[in-house]
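Researcher: We plan to redesign the surface later, but first we want a full-length starting point. Tokens attached.
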């Protein structure tokens, strides 16, 4: 909490209040870009932090709705939350698990503005903010072609694959998972929702990894084996015909 108080005095809260009330503006305090802030939060922070409005479900770091809940209830200003977020990113605890240098400058300003606006706020983002990041897994279903099925990890940094649906014909299939997110993922396959794992790719943060399995007709689940990722929604249904 090294940032606490750094910007406590005199920070403009009116813009923030206007946004909260109207929901049609996307400019935060100091003209921070909240859309970019949301996208960058998902890309750089969401794999470790839960924040309901951003639909992120990371569990390595504290839940950021809960982290500020009590202080906000006790009257902490959102401009102060913003300073705390900036301070944490600039100076994470050297003994903690939060990496250094995740963001700085305008990017950090946008991230902190977004987090401070939405932390512990019920409901959902509205207007342009609602569509700033596509819902996890909402991409076009993956379709096997010539024995190859490509299911990319979400490039946004969400704990999700681009699509949570895939189809294949029975027989041998190579499932490929391109990953450009920088977040560690793999892809594993099991029959049903809890059957024995038939095959699993190696784990990668960048590049492409694959696993070959032979499948009979039926319903399967593909999922990421990094702890916490499946629970956060990184899974989908594979229908084999
Ligand atoms: C690799 C995982 C990881 C990433 C990525 C990460 N954090 Fe963290 N974060 C942590 C951990 C672990 C803690 C708690 C320990 C600590 O303070 O170092 C933490 C603490 C925090 C806190 C303090 C919460 C509290 O309860 O006091 C804030 C705010 C925060 N992070 C914001 C961010 C933002 C913003 C980003 C993106 C720029 C980010 N984090 C990216 C792991 C991460």
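Model: Full-length starting sequence:
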């Amino acid at each position: 909490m090294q940032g606490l108080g750094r910007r406590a005095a005199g920070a403009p809260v009116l813009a923030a209040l206007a946004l909260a009330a109207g929901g049609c503006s996307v400019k935060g305090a100091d003209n921070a870009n909240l859309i970019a802030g949301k996208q960058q939060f998902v890309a750089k922070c969401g794999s470790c932090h839960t924040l309901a409005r951003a639909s992120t479900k990371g569990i390595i770091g504290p839940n950021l709705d809960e982290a500020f809940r009590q202080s906000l209830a006790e009257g902490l200003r959102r401009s102060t939350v913003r300073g705390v977020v900036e301070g944490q990113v600039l100076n994470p605890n050297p003994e903690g698990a939060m990496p250094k240098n995740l963001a700085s400058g305008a990017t950090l300003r946008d991230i902190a503005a977004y987090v401070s606006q939405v932390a512990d706020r019920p409901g959902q983002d509205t207007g342009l903010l609602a569509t700033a990041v596509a819902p996890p897994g909402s991409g076009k279903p993956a379709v096997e072609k010539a024995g190859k099925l490509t299911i990319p990890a979400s490039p946004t940094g969400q704990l999700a694959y681009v699509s949570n649906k895939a189809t294949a014909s029975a027989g041998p299939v190579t499932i490929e998972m391109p990953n450009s997110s920088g977040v560690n993922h793999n892809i594993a396959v099991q029959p049903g929702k809890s059957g024995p794992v038939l095959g699993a790719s190696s784990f990668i943060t960048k590049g492409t990894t694959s696993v070959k399995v032979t499948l009979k007709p039926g319903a399967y689940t593909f999922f990421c084996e990094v702890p916490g990722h499946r629970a956060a929604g990184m899974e989908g249904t594979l229908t084999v015909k």
